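S1.2 Input.
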Amino acid sequence: MQSFVQDRYFREHVRGGENPRVTAWFFHAYVSHITAPPVLREARALAAFWDKADILAYPQELVVGSLFAAEVAWFHYGDGVVLDRKRLEEYVRQNGLDAQAYGEMADRVEKACYQNPYQPGFRSDRFTEEQKRSLYSTAATSTWFGGHMAMDYEKILKVGLGGYRKELALEKGSHPEAKEFYEALEVTLSAFQRLILRTALVCEQLASCQEEDVLRENMERAALTLRAVAEEPPAGFREALQLVVMVHLCSNADSFGRFDKYLFPFFQRDLEQGRLTEAEALDLLQSLIIKVEQLDQIQNMTLGGVLPDGSGNYTRLTELMLKAVSNMGYKGPNLALRVHPSMPQHFWPLITSSYNMFQS
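S1.3 Output.
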């Protein structure tokens, strides 16, 4: 199966491989737009990073999407804009730049950007009493960590990115008082779509230099899949899984949410129409697990549970995901299986098998 080829390549060549180059795409754009409202300067800086960052892909991958970057500054939903001074010094040194000028730019960034009030060095004198109460309550800003979060994958898969663009246009016209907020959303969405198309181009370039037919065809299919989901809703399981991976890569979220629930309709339809076999689906899921491991961060995923009508959500896709985790033997994703009296008894051996492979 192709995922095991990918797994072997990942273990032998990717893990512990070369380090990414130090870059400052986000930092430069943030400085350029530092007088803009925070939501806009963050959106434009993020767009610059997505437009310029190196994209990493391997011809063995069934599911693609990786940014190969060591940025000097970045956006995190829990800490706002984070600046790594030591990495900035390395960037300045490597590129023969003016250390004093960049130090002054770094001072401007740190003075302007949001700060996590629970982290050392928080300067409370920069905020009014009302702002401080808001920050400490974790209730007011888009950049404060309010708990583990997941994207609305169900809606993303239903309407597609083009559907979101149409919805944004309608909402923007209805809320002129929030013009800057909606402009930031448009900037971010456009940049994300460009990133998907850039990733497709990388796959096409990889395909053109492959001697093995299976690898060339794999990259060609990956490129077609990416180009399809850059605008339209996914047509099948592979397209849906690929879009989920791209959204997850760029969202800063640490959870895939109810993974088997929102992907099951695509899985079931493809099986019924002969577009997918269970063996192919398992291969794709195992490729996803390798992609999660590549992130080298805790990534949560929920399976099972019940549906809104009270019936159990224990499907063949749920089983295949448990089997994929057991097969691959990685620490992630961090599974949370919701147990309910409606859960079939044959799930228990799958659960214990996953647990034995370091899942909990």
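S1.4 Remarks. Residues 139-147 have pLDDT under 50 and may be disordered.
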